[in-house]
User: What shape does this take?
Amino acid sequence: MGLAEITSRLRAAEARAGRAAGAVTLIAVSKLQPGARVAEVLRQGQRVFGENYVQEAAAKWPAWRAEFQGVKLHLIGPLQSNKAKAAVELFDAIHTLDRPSLADRLARLAEARGQCPEVFVQVNTGAEPQKAGVLPDALDRFVADCRALGLPLAGLMCIPPEAEDAAPHFAMLAAMAARNGLAGLSMGMSSDFEAAVAAGATHVRIGSAIFGPRT
Ligand SMILES: *Cc1c(COP(=O)(O)O)cnc(C)c1O
Assistant: This one.
């Protein structure tokens, strides 16, 4: 597929949803992709990228950031507390805040730095036991607790259950964001981003449809 085709599909989905062109941020998910493919997408002008692993990103991105102006990095994988400091130094956004101890850690790091990445709370919309994320029932309280810590929140993020229609999960996430006064909605991947845009996504996370299968 590639960047050009995904970008045009995204613009078409925005138009169908009655949203402005460019209203949705395309996060190109470059985890576990060969460097040559990522460099090619950088040369094509893409500047917003998603990574799942702090260490992998820390090894790859400083050199590309030196070569290409304006790169923005989003952490979309689980964050261990002992990597939180490295993460806030490297990433412009963190999509996977999923527990009180991490909220506490991020709030203290942000205070010490005088700046904070954009933070999204991951919600386990399908209440899947093996999946990270705050359970839907616990979300409103968790958001209030983050705000009480002084941690600014950008929005919510979800990864719907693989075997289910994603649309109800996207709708649930949008409703939870609206009732909590949160503008950001990080939802939609290669196979379902058009449905996510229809449901109000502000950020879609697309890997294999841009870069091809991961190695
Ligand atoms: C890997 C990953 C993606 C991208 O998945 P594709 O199916 O390759 O588009 C999106 N979101 C998260 C959280 C991921 O881990």
Notes: The chain has one domain: 47-190+201-211.
